[in-house]
Amino acid sequence: MKNLLLILCLSLFCFSCKSPEARMPESVQSGSFLKESAERNRKLNELERQQIKNIIESNPDKNYIASESGFWYYYTNEIENDTLQPQFGDIVDFDYNVSTIQGSEIYATENRTYVMDKEELFTGLREGLKLMKPAESVTFIFPSQKAFGYYGDENKIGTNIPLICEVTLNTITQRND
């Protein structure tokens, strides 16, 4: 009996001290999800660019300007003599309305006060306001990645919706340093 107990203890001691072995993955991901996502985004971007190009071509009387940031705009009312444009921290008061590129109104004219680059505002409109002077009116066409992108605004604007925004910059109150 003693021998059996001794053999059992020795065998437990020898086999229980074995170091753990790393588990091998069951399947290897090839990055196909990222490739598919990039391709889907390329197709979406091309579709939106074509839609925007069609809008621009159907309005030859408008002088559309392509911004460096990836959106298009034209002046409804351009102010030539004023040079004041919003800077970081300036308070701007503006009116705007938002519609789809098919022309369906999403948000009717709203008034908004915004502290430049210190509050939440979608990328395209934030960049567009920086191009404007007081009393100017500009119509912007934003592809979805410059508007609300994948998430939308969680209210009326859905996923990947390009937008047209008509904006009038009422006033700029410069920050006091």
Q: What name does CATH use for the topology of the domain at 71-173?
A: Chitinase A, domain 3
Main sheet overview? 6 strands, antiparallel
The whole-angstrom Rg is 29 Å
What is the terminal separation in angstroms?
91 Å
Mean pLDDT: 86
Shape: elongated
Main structural class: alpha+beta
The residue ranges in which pLDDT falls below 50 over 5 or more consecutive positions are: none
Largest sheet strand order: 1-2-5-6-3-4
Number of strands: 6
User: Number of helical segments?
Assistant: 3
Helix-residue proportion: 25-40%
In the CATH scheme, the class of the domain at 71-173 would be Alpha Beta
Q: From the coordinates shown, what is the CATH architecture of the domain at 71-173?
A: Roll
Note the main attributes of this structure.
Chitinase A, domain 3, six-stranded antiparallel sheet
Structure notes:
This protein is an alpha+beta fold and 177 residues long. It has a domain at 71-173: Chitinase A, domain 3 (Roll), CATH 3.10.50. The protein is 27% helix and 26% strand. The protein contains three helices and six strands; from the N terminus they run ααββββαββ. The protein has helices spanning 2-16, 32-57, 123-129, and strands at residues 65-66, 72-77, 91-100, 105-115, 137-142, 163-173. The protein is elongated and about 105 Å long.
